[in-house]
Amino acid sequence: MRRHRINLNLLVDHNPLSFMTSVANFIDSIGKEDYINVFLAELDNVDVTTGMYSRAYACRQHGSSIDWSSLLKSSVASTSSSFQLSDVIRDEDSNKDSNANINKLVAVGSALLASLESRPPSQWLTCRLSAWVKLGRMDRALQLLAGGPADLLDAGFRHLLYLA
């Protein structure tokens, strides 16, 4: 049996504003760590509405840029977490304009992390690890595992080995 599925980037690219303002609802609707991990694995900085699915989005203006920085700020502000964007931006990039470093990958990954921060760590551990790895911050993923219970530690390291 052959399965057809869409590129999951379309969930973000179809309407970025709507997606970024409802990240918590997105997580609740999916409800499974594995599906969130598949979404994170497929997440890319490419706008699929101007490439792969351009025929379906012929009326969309090509080349129009999205202000991911403001979308991220509004998304993080809507959560009740203590998430800091400075955790995502590397120290060597912090002396540059931090808004210049925010792209689709950083914005969506950070919004997911901010939303997951208020949830039970044991339930969403692999999603947090996947998000940190996708953002290029393996050090933060390892810090997340430090000091945790042995069963979560083992599952977390197995997941990181799978991702690496």
TrEMBL record:
GO biological process, one term: tRNA wobble base 5-methoxycarbonylmethyl-2-thiouridinylation
One function term, GO molecular function aspect: tRNA binding
Residue ranges occupied by any ELP1 alpha-solenoid domain in the UniProt entry: 1-62
Residues making up the signal peptide according to the UniProt record: none
Pfam families, per the entry: A-sol_ELP1
GO cellular component assignments: cytosol; elongator holoenzyme complex
Name assigned to this protein: FAT domain-containing protein
